[in-house]
Amino acid sequence: MLWGFLIILLGGGVFAASILMDDMNIATIYMQMGFGGALGVGVGLAVFVYVAGLVYGMSSANGRKALLGIGVFTILLGLCTLMYWDEYLRLVLTFLPSAEEAPALPFIGLPIIGTGGLMCKLGSLKD
To answer: What is the pTM of this model?
Structure first.
């Protein structure tokens, strides 16, 4: 109910703004709103699945072993992202910019390493 009201309120605001301003294209704004909403739902779903997997993984001994293994793999993935951005990663994912074009982009490996460390820590907890 609340989300429906907020969507109607947002849509009404965009429609009113399009009436008041002559140079505003309402179809483009609705498309951007839809894309933003889909992106928000996708990010929320990814975070929910990630946290649910962590909680489920911590509930059994085999789940903790799996978390520990996935954590080690994730740490190695983050290290490879840091060290081999231009040499290997850009050859596979050709749409990524080079480290010269975006020098801070290879450092996306740092949060990946942090996520792997969290998984290793949660996977190493004893009963």
So the answer is: 0.61
